[in-house]
């Protein structure tokens, strides 16, 4: 009887030890899972922070001015004066303990900007890499003359909205390299023009025995009349288009989150 009692005691002890071992392992698994879930939540939050800081950069006046200065410096190929800021931090109040390091890189070949943002939150780091297109696509079609009927149908609304935006936000301009008119433009002499000509509500009319040569780009609402020769030149467009409302149209064309 005593032998059986001793056997039962040892068995009970083994069962107890086994139960403790199982419970400890279950608690460890639960703790690890909770830690994994918590890290996933923080990682998701950090991703949100990185993406929100990207939007913050494009829409907040302070940071947008930094971006504008950086872009204009490179587009104009400035060689004098102080180089613009290309590395800075973003902090805002949505997640008070978060911050993001921003690094801007200009792509000379494509006139685009790479925005690299590394965000930190509760010891978690996430990275967003975005490519930013800078100039309104209308000026990138590589066509020296555009009107609403020469442009593809799916792009026509955007084109007409751009002309309306110019008309609403700028007075008529007649300079050596930029002409913006809200009605027909009459050409009565032979002219070779370097720059940009825009008729927001009309067309160009060239006298029958005269010709107009434009190195740059022509934008009109209606189809023009007369002898017009156009030579698309993007470098000229970049140089003289910066004062045109809507010329710069920042758009994210590629984004990757790590």
Please describe the structure with a list of short key phrases separated by commas or semicolons.
single chain; 5-stranded antiparallel sheet; alpha/beta; about 260 residues; 6-stranded mixed sheet
Notes on the protein architecture:
The protein has helices at residues 2-59, 61-75, 153-169, 234-240; strands at 87-90, 99-107, 112-121, 124-135, 145-146, 173-174, 178-181, 185-187, 191-199, 204-206, 211-220, 227-232, 248-257. With 258 residues, it is an alpha/beta fold. It is elongated, with a radius of gyration of 32 Å. The longest helix has 58 residues, at 2-59. Helix 1 (2-59) crosses helix 2. It contains four helices and 13 strands.
Estimated structural class? alpha/beta
- pLDDT averaged residue by residue: 87
Report the span from N to C terminus.
69 Å
- What is the global morphology? elongated
Radius of gyration: 32 Å
Figure out the total of helices.
4
The fraction of residues assigned to DSSP E strands is 25-35%
Largest sheet: 6 strands, mixed
Instruction: Write the H/E string, N to C.
Output: HHEEEEEHEEEEEEEHE
């Amino acid at each position: 009887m005593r032998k059986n009692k001793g056997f039962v005691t040892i068995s009970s002890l083994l069962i107890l030890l086994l139960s403790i071992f199982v419970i400890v392992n279950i608690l460890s698994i639960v703790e690890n899972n909770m830690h994994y879930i918590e890290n996933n939540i923080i990682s998701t939050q950090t991703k949100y922070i990185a993406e929100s800081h990207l939007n913050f950069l494009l829409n907040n006046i302070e940071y947008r001015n930094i971006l504008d200065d950086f872009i204009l410096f490179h587009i104009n190929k400035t060689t004098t004066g102080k180089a613009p800021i290309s590395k800075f931090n973003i902090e805002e109040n949505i997640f008070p303990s978060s911050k993001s390091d921003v690094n801007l890189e200009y792509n000379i070949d494509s006139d685009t900007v790479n925005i690299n943002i590394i965000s930190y939150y509760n010891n978690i780091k996430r990275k967003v890499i975005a490519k930013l297109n800078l100039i309104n696509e209308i000026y990138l079609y590589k066509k020296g003359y555009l009107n609403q009927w020469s442009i593809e149908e799916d792009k026509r609304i955007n084109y007409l909205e751009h002309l309306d935006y110019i008309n609403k936000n700028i007075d008529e301009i007649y300079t050596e390299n930029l002409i913006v008119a809200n009605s027909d433009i009459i050409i009565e002499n032979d002219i070779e023009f370097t720059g940009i000509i825009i008729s927001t509500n009309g067309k160009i009319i060239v006298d029958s025995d005269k010709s107009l040569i434009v190195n740059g780009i022509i934008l009109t609402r209606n189809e023009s009349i007369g002898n017009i020769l156009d030579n698309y030149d993007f470098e000229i467009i970049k140089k003289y288009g910066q004062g045109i409302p809507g010329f710069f149209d920042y758009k994210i064309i590629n984004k990757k989150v790590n």
